[in-house]
Amino acid sequence: MSEKPIRLVIADDNPRIRSQIRRALEEGGCDVCAEGASADDAVALTREHRPDVALLDIHMPGNGISAAQRISRGSPQTAVVMLTQSTEDDDLFDSLRAGASGYLLKGADPATLAGTLRGVLLGEAAMPPALVMRVMQEFRGPSRRKFLRKSAAADKLSAREWEVMEMLSQGLSTDEVGKRMFVSPTTVRVHVSSVLRKLRVKDRESALRLLGGDAQD
User: What kind and span of H or E run contains 158?
Assistant: First the structure.
């Protein structure tokens, strides 16, 4: 008995990319029942065709994350998977909060896409290993940041700022913190500058002393 093909809706505003994705999915035994170029298209086509999976670009007209949220609420029988070029933390976490079951990057081998989506429908995670680590770090963050002292100023720090300062307190350099967080050293410095402003101190050593960490570099 042959395996039932996965039925999909694809939404991406780039026709060339849509064509490549469709070809890869059909070669993998999937049934692409509709294509769209915007968030509104994605929602309408999902409602019409009731596919197993809605495969969405993030930065298409109307915003793919908005589409993911609307589909998750209005068509819960459809699994939402983002297929994007973005590795930004905000896009990743906003997608998951919107109800996405997977977050895939467009640079991955298209031949693996059909198999990955079958895994999603079986309850498997669909996310590159580096992004899985980001999610794990985000959830582990509070336990790692126990060194931080409670204060009115410290309560104003974002989760990412607290994470940066915790790593700096362990003696990691700016470059090493960037590598662990999968961001550039410049982004780390931006976080540190924001912390200094919020804590009203002139340097990171003073900030670490205020937060209860050791000032190392």
Answer: none
